[in-house]
Design a protein that fits this description.
The complex is a heterodimer of chains A (about 425) and B (about 475). Chain A is α/β, with parallel strands linked by helices. Chain A contains 13 helices and 17 strands. In chain A, helix 8 links the parallel strand 12 and strand 13. Chain B has a domain of about 290 residues: Alpha-Beta Barrel (TIM Barrel), CATH 3.20.20.140. Chain B is about 30% helix and about 20% strand. The chains are: A alpha/beta (about 425), B alpha/beta (about 475).
């Protein structure tokens, strides 16, 4: 393992010396042979071959022929995993957290569903290579702020334009469900104020939804008979809500406190939206797990590495949350809520695994489960022929920090295992000149 | 009462003394000599931890080894130790025992963090505002942490004094948290935070890294003159002592080596600057905190003998940490810099063992090198390595017991022991471990919002003393 990573460093070093530019990804036909292949959906193949061709997995199995033109990569003692999916991040939407000029995830206004995170995804963010070299190949990039901050986007972490990165066209509208709880230690509102403001926010939510439904009806009437019916007076926010109220655009519903989750589930049921929503965050999901399971709503749970929401709660509830939801029968995927440290997704999954979710379910929660929830399980989330070649080759369990990733493919491109962090390591491990020049 | 009942012929006047002796014997354990008797309220429990894999840190890994804890210290380490009569025996078969984890940078269990009213505030200290009821102390124990260096914030080039505490959760007296005898330390801060708070916020120096240097130089020069005036007065060469200044007393302590400087810093240039300043004043002990660009000047840090206490992988939350690498721990360690990994966060301090493990992802440190980052290395940086940071006979019985190797992602802390007292027990502790409950608080109010940057907002607490800080608390401002 140490030898491999040394070899890897040497190769990287050579690459760095050869060119000051970032090494681009490289497409082609590849055959990964003698590998332990963790398919996620069809068990684990102890000694198999996986062929990558035209950006896709062409074949995977124990007895797979290696195409004549394939570049063979021997994976003896190595394991292949599907690329990991983070179900909630701000990756690409912010470069330096404290600098407002680099923050593009929060627009001004309470009602901005027409804002599209995809527009502001920076394909060349320094954080993207930092993320993918840890095996994370797709993420949800999501906006925040206000009641309806905009649409999130599922993106792959290789591409030079946002369009190239968009995966499966999945762009749910984000609904930040009104919160009844205190927002932090600085929130000094009285209980009454909190309650009153929460009530007002829900009334406002209902008003917005009614308005959007009316807008959509006028829009439909106009479309059916343009001569007889006027167009609705143009409102960008309402226009963006049309596919939402018509039921064709999914809703990423953010709620954390148990009371908010319960309220949101009831609200969604009343509005006939239960099958359209995906719950995101769900910090206190464990408290109302049965209700979530009964509603059949999937949950994007996390960050796992966080502190309990109430002083009285057991210290490990954020770690255990995913497992408790899973045990109740809820379909769970894991989100970090991070930007520059989305790379820690495998460790969020690892903690969830240790505290009750189990290794297998934890792996599913960062691969096939989110793929199914986002309707892209024909594209990503497992190692199956026909799917995008989003995968990595590792020295062992990807949740363990001692594991190294030695090969990475996204959309069939072999991605160099380089990032700002490896580049600085290579330059400064043995700095020259040292103290004396 | 039963004691009186079984001794009917006992002279009543001696009864209280007998009760006292019996209590003392009972507290000390049947075989302990009487001199070891503790007062009933404070008596640590003796315990024999049997059959664990002992990660001593300083003497290798010892399989199937017992640890005998007596009177709050490690009394014996070895195979098949004999259990004294009546002692609690903890079966650690298939488990791992490591020294209690030491967090060299924390803001836990204090009611205020920054005295942001002046660029130099060495006279204040967070030790005056300790809060023993803070449940975060317990949550850190549940991650194996037994000692924390509670620091003043980073608003000022020279901030207040820090306090090294033990996580004696359960004690009601704030003073019971203090690690008695730990060297005094003081907070310095370079770069964006002090220039933003004072220059940008209050329109006074410093607003640049040039200004930060001069604020520190001026303060240390004043302290030098103050100490000189006191020395002359004591020698009878000056008619009167200088007017007493608590601030200059502390700063003079830095110059005399009694107070260790722990300096919030990020960029390579400002790190070099402070080493130059300290060298000019003859100050030898310094630990750089955060020190994200420490890797760039690792040879200089090693040559000076400076310590570095870093994050495992935090970066890009502000401009001065944009050019960071998670390989910092590895580069610093391989260049011979005394390095630790800290939390600065009530979330990170719950899994410092995992943070240390990341040094194997980023740079292949050995198990022992990685574990040193959270044990003996921070102990040395805090000047407490003679008492904690490794499992050795005679050291404080601060121990963390895990079910798997603590560098594994699947490791779960089972027990955490401070001075021999079990302060965390995963198997026995109830969910609600609060020591004090606010009867006015609503039971269903959860403290996190939907977009959870709560962890980092807590970090922003160091700016709470300024209006600007209140506006900045939603940004990542460590």
């Amino acid at each position: 393992m140490r030898f491999l990573s040394l070899l890897c460093s040497l190769l990287l070093l050579t690459a760095t010396v050869a060119s000051a530019q970032k090494t681009p990804g490289r497409d082609g036909t590849f055959a990964l042979t003698n590998a332990r292949i963790v398919t996620v959906t069809n068990g684990t193949i102890d000694n198999g071959t996986l062929v990558i061709e035209d950006g896709r997995i062409a074949a995977v199995g124990a007895d797979v022929a290696v195409p004549a033109d394939a570049e063979v990569i021997d994976c003896t003692d190595l394991s292949i995993y599907p690329g990991l999916i983070d179900s909630g991040t701000q990756l690409g939407l912010v470069e330096v957290g404290s600098l407002s000029e680099t923050r593009d995830y929060r627009e001004i206004g309470e009602l901005t569903p027409h804002m599209q995170a995809l527009t502001a995804v920076n394909p060349n963010s320094v954080s993207i290579p930092v993320t993918r070299v840890n095996g994370v190949t797709s993420v949800i990039a999501e906006p925040e702020g206000g009641l309806l901050p905009g649409t999130a986007a599922l993106i792959g972490l290789h591409g030079y334009t946002p369009e190239q990165m968009l995966l499966g066209g999945y762009e749910p509208v984000v609904l930040d469900y009104p919160s009844t709880g205190r927002r932090g230690w600085w929130d000094d509102r009285s209980e009454e104020e909190i309650e009153k403001q929460a009530q007002e926010a829900i009334e406002k939510l209902n008003a917005v939804w009614d308005q959007a439904a009316l807008y959509a009806r006028i829009d439909s009437a106009h479309a059916a008979d343009p001569d007889a019916n006027r167009r609705p007076e143009y409102s960008p926010a309402m226009q963006a809500m049309v596919p939402v109220v018509r039921g064709t655009q999914p809703i990423l519903l953010k709620a954390d406190a148990s009371a908010d989750i319960t309220s949101a589930l009831e609200w969604a049921a009343e509005r006939g939206l239960t099958n359209q929503i995906v719950l995101s965050g769900a910090e206190e999901g464990w408290r109302v797990a049965d209700a979530i399971a009964e509603a059949g709503v999937p949950v994007l749970v996390g960050p796992v590495l966080s502190t309990p929401s109430r002083d009285a709660d057991r210290y490990d509830k954020p770690y255990a949350n995913a497992g408790l939801l899973h045990d109740a029968g809820v379909q769970v995927a894991i989100r970090t809520g991070e930007a520059e440290n989305v790379r820690n997704l495998p460790y969020h999954a690892g903690f969830a695994a240790a505290y009750g979710l189990g290794k297998e379910a934890a792996l599913r929660a960062v691969t096939i489960a989110p793929a199914q929830i986002f309707g892209v399980d024909d594209e990503v989330g497992s190692l199956e022929a026909g799917k995008r070649a989003n995968l990595f080759v590792a020295t062992g369990d990807p949740f363990e920090t001692s594991t190294d990733i030695v090969h990475l493919f996204i959309d069939g491109y072999q991605i160099p295992l380089e990032s700002r962090h490896t580049e600085l390591y290579n330059e400064f491990l043995r700095r020259s000149p040292g103290v004396q020049k | 009462m039963t004691l009186f009942a079984t001794m009917p012929r006992c002279n009543r006047s001696f009864a209280p003394l007998i009760v006292l002796l019996a209590t003392a014997l009972w507290m000390a354990g049947p075989l302990a000599p009487l001199v070891h008797a503790q007062s009933p309220a404070a008596g640590p429990d003796d315990i024999l931890i049997e059959g664990g894999t002992v990660l001593t840190i300083t003497n290798g890994v010892r399989d199937d080894t017992d640890i005998l804890v007596r009177d709050g210290t490690i009394a014996e380490i070895g195979p098949d130790l004999e259990a004294p009569d009546g002692i609690e025996v903890y079966d650690a078969t298939d488990m791992y025992v490591m020294p209690g984890i030491i967090d060299a940078h924390s803001h836990i269990a204090v009611s205020s963090i920054n005295e942001a009213t002046n660029p130099v505030t060495a006279e204040v200290g967070v030790g005056d505002v300790l809060d023993p009821f803070e449940v975060e102390l317990y949550r850190a124990l549940a991650g194996g942490v037994t000692t924390s260096h509670v620091m003043h914030g980073s608003a000022n080039p020279i901030g207040g004094q820090n306090e090294t505490i033990k996580h004696r959760y359960g004690a009601a007296d704030p003073d019971a948290l203090r690690m008695e005898g730990a060297p005094r330390t003081v907070k310095f801060a370079l770069g964006e935070n002090p220039t933003r708070v004072h220059g940008e916020g209050n329109d006074i120096q410093p607003t640049t890294r040039m200004g930060v240097e001069q604020v520190i130089r001026e303060a240390l020069k004043n302290a030098e003159r103050y100490a000189e005036a006191k020395r002359l007065y004591d020698a009878g060469e000056r008619p009167a002592p200088p007017p007493h200044s608590e601030r200059l007393e502390v700063l003079a302590g830095i110059l005399s080596g009694d107070v260790i400087v722990h300096c919030h810093s990020y960029r390579a240039d400002e790190i070099l600057m402070l080493m130059d300043v300290l060298e000019d004043f003859g100050v030898e002990d310094v630990v750089f905190q955060h020190v994200n660009e420490g890797f760039k000047v690792a040879p200089e840090l090693a040559q000076f003998g400076a310590g570095a206490s870093i994050f495992a992988d935090w970066w890009a939350y502000k401009f001065e940490v944009y050019y960071s690498t998670a390989y910092n721990a590895a580069i610093l360690t391989q260049n011979g810099v005394l390095t630790s990994i800290n939390s600065d966060s009530p979330e990170l301090n719950r899994h410092l063992y995992h943070e240390a493990a990341k040094s194997q992802k980023y740079g292949d440190l050995t198990d022992n090198q990685a574990l040193r980052l959270i044990t003996i290395n921070p102990a040395r940086q805090l000047g407490i390595a003679d008492r904690v940071g490794s499992i050795e006979v005679g050291k404080d019985a601060d121990l963390a017991i895990f079910d798997e190797h603590p560098l594994s992602i699947y490791a779960i802390a089972q027990r955490t022991i401070v001075d021999g007292v079990t302060r965390f027990d995963r198997a026995l502790d109830p969910d609600d471990m609060r020591l004090r409950v606010d009867p006015e608080a609503s039971v269903d109010a959860s403290t996190h919002g939907t977009h959870d940057h709560g962890v980092r907002c807590m970090q922003g607490a160091f700016l709470q003393a300024t209006q600007r800080g209140l506006r900045l608390q939603h940004t990542h401002s460590h």
